[in-house]
Amino acid sequence: MCGCTASSANTKQSSVPRPGTTLLCQRRLLPSALGKGSDLEKAFATATLVYSNAADPEDKLSKAGARTLLQTQFGCFIQGQENKPKYKEIISALEEDLDNKLEFEDFMILLLSIALMSDLLQEIRNVRNTK
Question: Is the pTM of this model over 0.70?
Fold first, then answer.
């Protein structure tokens, strides 16, 4: 059991999740079509749900909300990136023009950009290569 409290597809979760919880508590939030989906499909569905739960009613995410999600949901990927110029550029863009909001596609590009430059990605790839 993942330890989350009430979860349902119609219930908005807090944009700052409690430690040790997951949005996919026993797959209850996944559409039934993904119940037997692949790991990659479920991972994408999870990212979509995290975004949707933090987005406003117009399905847009504030830059402050995006930064909070990065810190709370993507911490392992951003750890150690603070001194990299590209990471600084991404974070400074989140701190500028705070009235602008991110759409889902922009948020996914942000996640992918940070993941691709992270040290963790190389560690993950090294584990795969040593098997």
Answer: no
